[in-house]
Amino acid sequence: EAVKPSNFLRQIIEADLDKGTYASRRWAGSPGDAAHHAAGEPDPAKIRTRFPPEPNGYLHIGHAKSICINFGLARDYGGVCHLRFDDTNPEKEDTEYVNSIKDAVQWLGFGWNNGGESNLYQASDYFGFMYRAAEYLIEAGHAYVDEQTAEQMRINRGDFGKPGVDSPFRSRTPAENLRIFREMRDGKHEDGSMVLRAKIDMASPNINMRDPAIYRIRRATHHNTGDTWCIYPMYTYAHPIEDALEQITHSLCTLEFEDQRPFYDWLLERLTEGGLLASPPPRQYEFARLNLTYVITSKRKLAQLVYDHKVSGWDDPRMPTIVGLRRRGYTPAALQMFAERIGVTKSDSWIDYSTLEGCLREDLELKAHRGMAVINPVKLVLTNWDEVMGAGHLEPCSLPALPHQNHEATQGVAEGTESPTRHFTIGKEVWIEREDFEEVPPKGYKRLYPGNKVRLKGGYVIECTGCTKDAAGNITEVLATVVPDTKSGTPGADSVKVKAAITWVGVTDGVNAEVRMYDRLFLDAQPDAGGKDFIESLNPNSLKVVTAIVEPSLANAKPDDKFQFERHGYFVADRVDHTAGKPVFNLAVGLKDSWGK
Ligand code: ATP
Ligand code: MG
Ligand code: MG
Question: What is the enzyme's main class (predicted)?
Fold first, then answer.
């Protein structure tokens, strides 16, 4: 296997494994804690990463990057990666999203049963521990209950370059804070009337260190804990504790959390001092989030596209969600290749959409069966067919479904494996692409025009004789004669030299198929940059539905089967709408990069 290129995360992990940074880590928490039991007695020599989505929407291509990084590093270094639902916010979460996230992780090729452990967690299981940790912080003088209004708190927090102002409630005694915090827990105070704040430094140059709120009152039913709690931890407080309880070693997140790292470290230091957590605590490292041109990666904005019916759903093939990409024809291998190719860096940049498409093309090139489909059909009549071939004769033809594999087989590489073959027939009438006939050929045109010969791919050489037109002058049929004894694969095949072979489908065995021709969803490369309204950037022509005619092997596709429609691109039988009786294909990606055009 090829050596993976190094990156700053790999260097950090390798250094920690060398030094044995976590080899001496010992559990120090209360033995009753769910996470401790769930994780068993972790092997301290292993690295432990986690992917911690909030179950409030469907995952997108940016999450795929994070999944590949976290699960990929654990796999590569013999470690473990946890799938953790960060469900500490009671209002926005839903089990529909929980299930879709599990599906997405597994489909991408990863799982939470790794390192011989089941590593599926939900942060809400730690509410009890988080509460006890908050009581500890109060007792140790590190937290206080603040009754300022939200507005007062915002003003007193100050601004960059301007220190904040201490709350009048900041000097409460631990005993008083503990009493009121317990009242908060017991439902004695109104929602929003007070919060618990960490007591750090109101003059810190980092606003996040100016006594951040760590608990709020919220009478909301939680999907896991029901009405057990009317106070909920803030994300910035919950997240480091989740990592520590699960004995994560390297907590990897995107750059926007860099300013939160001092609080992450502050909190875990305090709780480690108090003997509540193992030492050394996990460490947070930030990497650049994925920005992809012509794509939006914000769950909130993607949700808006769904709820405003700009797309057909989360799994619309134009969506950058994992379900959307999957329905579009993307493969786990292509997305993993993409994650490898873009790498891990410490500074934000934009990745060109063609990079993603290139990965899919590369994956499908050797795997996708070939087939012929006529997307803009016109009928071609072989006027001498009945005379030279016999009236109504249908001649069986075939071509390899995987030309590359066939090539290898002839080289003896894949001996014993038979290359799959597609079968179809040719008769008096076939469908061809309208653009393959020109009454008056432009300079250099090699396809059908009166007097020119071409090959019908996998069939016969034919000679064009003209066309018929309707009253309005539109071409209704292209006319040609078949050159006998020139069938592909027979000794006479090369007896007549031609400059072009064109794709076609027999009128007798061709099958009508709905083909969804997708284009980019947005016209701007950065649809939501600089506060732009991304809705205005929607491409009105991002979907064109056409009726194509496909060869029988394509009509027999199963949902999710991928093909190369020769000369047109890669297509997938739609997972949702394709049936044997009514084939439906989605354009996954063209054969060539067209983004530069
Ligand atoms: P969104 O902003 O789309 O709602 P999020 O960051 O709120 O995404 P979470 O479910 O909280 O979504 O994220 C789970 C993990 O995925 C986090 O560790 C987050 O850093 C990572 N992630 C989210 N978006 C991207 C992205 N564009 N590139 C890389 N990682 C991402
Ligand atoms: Mg989030
Ligand atoms: Mg977010």
Answer: ligase
80-135 residue pLDDT tens: 999 999 999 887 767 889 999 999 999 999 999 876 778 999 999 999 999 999 99
Residue found under tokens 């590359």: 404
DSSP H/E element including 312: none
Pairing, β 213-217 against β 195-198: antiparallel
> Ligand 3 centroid to 298 CA: how many Å?
7
The pair of three-digit structure tokens given for residue 460, joined into one six-digit string:
């016969």
Q: Is the pTM of this model over 0.90?
A: yes
Which ligand 1 atom sits closest to the C-alpha of 52? 14
Known binding residues for ATP: 54-56, 60-66, 254, 289-290
**Closest residue by CA, ligand 1 atom 15:** 53
Cα separations (Å) of 163 from 27, 196, 214, 302?
Answer: 39, 21, 20, 38
Q: Which CATH superfamily is domain 137-233 in?
A: Glutamyl-tRNA Synthetase; Domain 3 (3.90.800.10)
Query: Which residue has the least CA distance to atom 23 on ligand 1?
Result: 63
Residue 163 corresponds to which amino acid?
A: P
The 3-class secondary structure across 357-394, one letter per residue, is HHHHHHHHHHHCEEECEECCEEEEEECCHHHHHCCCCC
Which class is domain 326-369+516-589? mainly beta
Cβ-proximal residues to 162 (8 Å cutoff; 6+ apart), any chain: none
**Ligand 1 pocket check: which of 56, 84, 122, 254 to mutate, most ligand atoms within 8 Å of Cβ?**
254
Q: What tokens were used for 505? A: 């489908």
pLDDT at residue 204 is higher than 70: yes
pLDDT at res. 31? 46
Interval 159-172: pLDDT, tens: 888 889 999 999 99
For residue 63, report the distance from its CA to the centre of ligand 1, in Å.
6
- Residue type at 474? N
Q: Does ligand 1 lie within 6 Å of residue 298's CB atom?
A: yes
**326-369+516-589 and 8-128+235-288 share a CATH fold:** no
User: CA 40, CA 375: separation in Å to the nearest integer?
Assistant: 58
Q: What is the pLDDT of residue 33?
A: 55
Cross-sheet strand order for the sheet of 80-85? 48-51, 80-85, 120-122
One-character DSSP codes across 158-221 = -BTTB-----TTTT--HHHHHHHHHHHHTT-S-TTS-EEEE---TT-SSGGGS--EEEEE----
| Domain range summary for the chain, segments of one domain joined by + | 8-128+235-288, 137-233, 326-369+516-589, 370-511
CATH class, 370-511 region: mainly beta
Helix (H) or strand (E) holding 503: none
Q: Report pLDDT digits (tens) over 227-257.
A: 999 999 999 999 999 999 999 999 999 999 9
ipTM confidence score: 0.95
Average pLDDT, integer, range 272-295: 94
Give the fold, CATH level 3, of 8-128+235-288: Rossmann fold (3.40.50)
CB of 53 closer than 6 angstroms to any ligand 1 atom: yes
